[in-house]
Amino acid sequence: MSNSHEKPIAPADDDCCGGGACNPCVWDHYYAELQKWRIKEAKIREQAEENSK
Question: Which residues form the Oxidoreductase-like domain (predicted)?
Fold first, then answer.
């Protein structure tokens, strides 16, 4: 299926300072992108199921 897209890659351990002061943190960005990816994946699966009926 050509509609697929790549899953976000988690930040490396040394990408985060661990201080808690960064806003947004690299992890905040990663989790936001991961959520978008999951939603898009669900829509792609749903569309594929509809098309297979």
Answer: 6-45
